[in-house]
Design brief:
The chain is of the alpha/beta class. The chain folds into 2 domains: about 130 residues, Nucleotidyltransferase, domain 5 (2-Layer Sandwich); about 90 residues, Nucleotidyltransferase, domain 5 (2-Layer Sandwich), CATH 3.30.420.40. Helix content is about 40%, strand content about 25%. The chain is built from 8 helices and 11 strands. Helix 1 packs across helix 2 and helix 3 packs across helix 7.
């Protein structure tokens, strides 16, 4: 199986080429410039592997949640590549990609990514048979809401990962008993891995069906309003 994955939803701009169980990857952390960086990185990994885009089985992308502009870049680039090569696509949760990085077999993982504006994108996951699966819906809320949910619903993570842990000290303090990774950013490497499972499950779709996940509805409303004369 050959999967090319891209992710531009956060500060980390990354590309990965997964060939069966081997992976070639590129990544750079930068606050901007993802649209200029992503296609040269794609060409780099294809050249290193000695493959062409047309030889891929499927293309994958980080579908969000993440920065509005970053998620749109990923979808736009991926759709262009997929249409050109006549390939199906798979969108992978950016929260799941972070959970996959941090996963330990059987451990519950809380992922909190900094969503700015005093909020975090968050969700809970567990590793099963080498892949993380969700234990909750993905949400965006104030950090206090994460703590409230933990207390009221009595879930017990062993790992807490993501930039939201570092951005909001009350989360780090509340989950101090967990293994903490406050700097984790999603990477196309894990996007490709999770996409390999989804492809085998028959979840690939046509390029025009690629959909973003923003969680914060008002972001799209603001973006739309900004375009009005």
């Amino acid at each position: 199986m050959k999967i090319l994955a891209i992710d531009t939803a956060t500060e980390q701009c990354s590309v990965a080429l997964r060939i069966d169980d081997a992976t070639l990857a590129r990544g750079v952390v930068t606050p901007r410039g993802h649209a200029d960086l992503i296609l040269p990185m794609v060409q780099e990994v294809l050249t290193e592997a000695g493959l062409t885009l047309q030889q891929m089985d499927v293309l994958a992308f980080g579908r969000g949640p993440g920065a509005f502009t970053g998620v749109r870049i990923a979808i736009g680039v991926l759709q262009g590549l997929a249409f050109a090569a006549d390939l199906p696509v798979i969108g992978v949760s950016n929260l799941a990609a972070v959970a996959q990085q941090a996963s330990i077999n059987g451990a519950e993982i809380l992922v909190c990514m900094d969503a700015r504006m005093g909020e975090v994108y968050w969700g809970r996951f567990q590793l099963e048979a080498g892949f993380v699966t969700p234990l909750s819906t993905e949400q965006v809320s104030a950090p206090e809401r994460v703590i409230e949910s933990h207390r009221n619903e009595n879930w017990m993570p062993k790992i807490a990962a993501g930039t939201g842990i570092g951005a909001y000290p009350l989360l780090a303090q509340h989950f101090a008993g967990c293994e903490l990774n406050a700097t984790s950013l999603p990477h196309a490497r894990e996007v490709a891995l999770l996409a390999s499972r989804d492809y085998q499950l028959g979840l690939a779709v046509s390029p025009e069906q690629a959909q973003p996940v923003y969680l914060r509805d008002q972001v799209t409303h603001v973006a739309a309003a900004s375009k009005k004369p």
